[in-house]
Amino acid sequence: MQLSDRQRLLYLYMREGWRRFSRRLALGRISAMRFSGGTPDRLIVAPTDLHPADLFAGEEIVGGRFPLAGRILECEGESPFALELPSEEFAVRLHSFGWLRHMRLVDPEKAALTARFIVDDWLQSHGRYIGGLAWRPDVAAQRIIAWLSHSPVVLKDADYPFYRRFLKSLAFQVRYLRHVADTTRDGEPRLRVRIALAMASIAMPASPSRMRKAARHLDEELDRQILPDGGHCSRNPRAALDVLLDLLPLRQTYVNLGHDMPAQLIPSIDRIYPALRFFRHQGGELALFNGATYTLAHELMSALRYDETGGAPFKALPSSNYDRLAVKETVVLMDTGVPRSVDLSATAAAGALSLEMSSGKNRFIVNSGRPRFAGEALRQLSRTTAAHSVATLNDTSSARISTSRFIGPIVVGGISKVDVSRAERQSGADSVTATHDGYLKRFGLLYERDILVAATGSEIRGRERFYKPSDPDGAIEKGTAVVRFHIHPTIQLYRVSANETRLIAVDGEAWALTCVDVPVEEEEDVFFADPSGVRASRQLTLTMPLARVAEIQWSLARQR
Fold first, then answer.
1. Mainly resides where (predicted)?
2. Which residues, including other chains, have CB under 8 Å from residue 125's CB and lie 6 or more apart?
3. d(CA 18, CA 24)
């Protein structure tokens, strides 16, 4: 490891240590004060929850079974908080109380009794002492939003003592969140904390100065995290949707109560919509880049139905660094950027220059995506370059991801620069050429990818190239690159010849991947971002022995 790398890691360790020390200092000060403060006498409003609710999940919870995070917990009459939970992700979902939304679809009496029993047990078991996963700032923020939004379910026919305990805990959690907001990890967790505090400032009794302060802090975070092109600063397409589903109810609550709106709230919402349309395949799914997992069609539509911005998707997101080649029914999305900061790279993937391709309602080529409920090992595997539809050199990812439990799985090296050029041909074809330096430091090579979508939309041509920056046409002594095309699990593969394989959708639409420079090989694969869980799939690979083949060309052509 070079000295500069050691210095970089030392800086990252010191910065994370300072963040943790600052949070503990804040917690110590708060604990000494015991979160002193008054208890509100009422709630002013219950904000709307736009996340889709599931009747089956609600009935299961009423029946004593919790279906969360891909697992089912049998409670058998006990509170789930008295039992050993199946996974950390299950615990996050349980303590966040987002599952309360399902209760609004079941019998109101049963829903209220069940919700009140579980909330009351949480107040007894976790509400009195700060610590553990339940008090992680992002979890507490989601819980505050859920309790406010679903207070009509929880408080239906509640007796006065429970009503007071519920409001007292809400006020307690809000005061806690105010003190730890600045030390919350950057990105979506910190923004959600600011959204929760803004929502609490208008849904609960608060002074005008408190409302203005919450709005000001939210403005600062929105201005910083929602980029000029509408993407989220994490570069995760799914993050923008999750944020939007919280911002829309917040906007409506401000309007309904007649309060002055945070200055950045409406502009941020208006910017996010075009970015979502950019990442949306025509079948309704969002692209799988940088930590994105599956998005159910009705989940996306619950947000898009409020879209008043209109217009066709952009050709590029210059701040988020993505490009979109769309001709007629054919769409190619390409990642042409790097993490915007170390802090924001905890879920970023080593997928620079990776692409996804769809035609009509069919996704043909995808990235493997992030598993929503799998363990940490699979989540980290999904971030590797090999889990993306792009070239991998010497079985090495283009970005180095930390394995330190202290600083977390942040990007600590590798790719630092992507050069992009875009060309729209007079013929109507659309193309993008991009180069990254992720392999320069370790192997002395740059990687270039050129993608062109023909004017008819029925052909895509690609070129993959590795070269030395000091001698672009010089020979490469050693190394092997593998270009991967991850195939969506619904697509069937049919091998025509050593150099051609057909991709056939359920509705019969077919494309052929052809490469005359090297064979087109079919291999086993895994698709992480499936609603049913991690799923077996297939991939097509083009292997480049660089001493002999440093550049290849391939094509995808629609079959008649």
1. other
2. 79, 81, 82
3. 10
